[in-house]
Amino acid sequence: MGSFIYSSIERADNKISEDLHYSKDIKLFTFSDLKGVTPMGEKGLLIRDMCYFYFSSPRKDISVPFVEGLFKNTSFHIAGVPLNLESVEVVKDIDIHDAIKFKTISPICITTKINMDNKLKIWDLSPNDIKFYKNLERNLKRKYSIYYGEESDNSKVNFEISSILRSTKRKIKNTYHTAHYIEFKAYGTPDLIKLGYESGFGEKNSMGFGMVEVIDTGVNFEI
Prior knowledge:
Layout: H1 2-12, H2 14-22, E1 30-31, E2 35-39, E3 45-52, E4 55-56, H3 60-72, E5 75-78, E6 81-84, E7 99-104, E8 111-116, E9 119-124, H4 130-148, E10 157-172, E11 175-188, H5 190-199, E12 212-216
Antiparallel strand pairs: 1-4, 2-3, 5-6, 7-11, 7-12, 8-9, 10-11
Helix pairs in contact: 1-2, 1-3, 4-5
């Protein structure tokens, strides 16, 4: 899916595509799992009728070329399966308040570094680990500084997991990472929460991690 998205952006704006591809910083876009399909391993995908996915970015210079690129070539392949574009729909904007409940539609990945045999190793964090939430907030503040060009010193967001739905292992380059489908409440600075909603929560969003949907905007919290 990631290569498909880059190809679509490239068809409309080669410079933006190159900037995103070669940037080593957070790219501020995310996408959901492919819906309406059953993975068939090396055989590709089983599509019973139609399939679809969601794409999101707070940056119009990313989202607009992506959509324009889709219409420049409406026949394409995903996981080796030939597909045809039938329609593109824009999801209505949602007012983001200081308390909201989300459900992941692609799994959240959060990592830390640990010392193992005198070497720093990347370690996947679980929602059962308190550091999961600290790093989730730290990552969101990093996105804020990239998008707004300033630090979010007075901003804060807290997370409360409602349910861990399931965990999954996904291969990124040559490494498997454990990521998690969860339902969670976020409360704090609306701009931070909105940025997580639009660009994805957690790490590796541009590889298809951390996209969420809103399931409750009238959340009450017991702290």
